[in-house]
Amino acid sequence: ISLISGMRRGLQEQQFSLHYQPKIDLQSHRICGFEALLRWNHPEQGYISPATFIPLAESSGLIIQLGEWVINEACRQARAWIDEGMPDFSIAINISSIQFKRGNIDTLVFNALTRNQLPPQYLELELTESLLIEDSERLANTLANLRSEGVHFSIDDFGTGYSNLGYLKKFEVEALKIDQSFVRKMDNHSGDAAIVRAIIQMASSLGLKTIAEGVEDASTAALLRGLGCTYAQGYYWARPMPVADAKHFWLTWI
Ligand code: G
Ligand code: G
Ligand code: MN
Ligand code: NA
Question: Residue 110 C-alpha to ligand 4 middle, in angstroms?
């Protein structure tokens, strides 16, 4: 309970921030964008992991306000980077299923894009498989609204969820994010490498891009490139960084 009221206060007192992890295009070796990851700098406890506070935000309903803050902040930052003359990019934000189902996410996103005069392709929403397998008309409508306005989606933690992949035909998604549990050990576990290869092949035949998460070394990056994976992110290149560090990293990279 104290963490929940702490979150409410933290939202008012600007204790939340987004950290940015670059995504690398494995063919061109350019930075194609960033994943924005929420951080809470608690006045007494220091940084608290989203793994701790997101579930509490979900069960208390505060995820609606928190998620709205994330959408607005990511759009504000994207606008700022455009104005600063940074090269083409997109910012991916994580959307909780509860947030998606309870909030008017399409309206929130459109308002944030409009307010910041941000073309929709700068924003990407990371959704979970568990959300997309739900057969609800409202969900389908919301996704279609966002998609028709040009907002892109990717499926987070792909491969850990469900075996029914019918939703890939039903919804227009841009990319599959291959879960780090397969990527991290693909170098010396042939089973994991086989799963990654299969996901990349399936995605490619469906016309979808792939994003490998959790790349921690050069050999994994080389393997992924050889398999035709589109993008990758991980500690090998950079951890999620505060905005100033992310921009510095980007400028150094270019
Ligand atoms: O960055 P880190 O490893 O600490 O993230 C832990 C978990 O929190 C991950 O599952 C990540 O997707 C999730 N997460 C990070 N930022 C957000 C956010 O803004 N919204 C939601 N819903 N989840 C987030
Ligand atoms: O659930 P989601 O995929 O959004 O979570 C991403 C999480 O993975 C974040 O907490 C982020 O900090 C973490 N992460 C990003 N790159 C790496 C990596 O290379 N290794 C490990 N162990 N974690 C990573
Ligand atoms: Mn994610
Ligand atoms: Na993920």
Answer: 25
